[in-house]
Specification:
With 114 residues, the chain is mostly beta strands. The protein contains no helices and eleven strands.
């Protein structure tokens, strides 16, 4: 089993920045893909960004150029640097990890509001 602990969400004004962190623990060896998804009420969970163990990244078009995903393989930690935040980035952000199966974090709220 892999446990995921997220941190870094909060309230920020449009144009501001936040950094999300997700640390994997437990049987967290040979984790392949790590990433972030987000969800708003009434909508499906959507991809934000993923990164493989070899650092290949994938971003949703809506966040390209504003968000940067990175990871520390030694610490089984993934980061999401979010810059130039927009109102429409408001959502619950979920950490995602793929090992022999997928795991999800509990979610952290990001609210962009003036």
């Amino acid at each position: 089993q892999v446990q995921l602990v997220e941190s870094g969400g909060g309230l920020v004004q449009p144009g501001g920045s936040l950094r999300l962190t997700c640390a994997a623990s437990g049987s967290a060896f040979r984790i392949n893909t790590m990433g972030w998804y987000r969800q708003t009420p009434g909508n499906q969970r959507e991809l934000v960004a993923t990164i493989t163990r070899g650092s290949t990244t994938n971003y949703a078009d809506s966040v390209k150029g504003r968000f940067t995903i990175s990871r520390d393989n030694a610490k089984n930690t993934v980061f999401l640097q979010m810059n130039s935040l927009k109102l429409e980035d408001t959502a619950v952000y979920y950490c995602y990890v793929l090992q022999y199966r997928s795991y999800w974090g509990q979610g952290t709220q990001v609210t962009v509001s003036s």
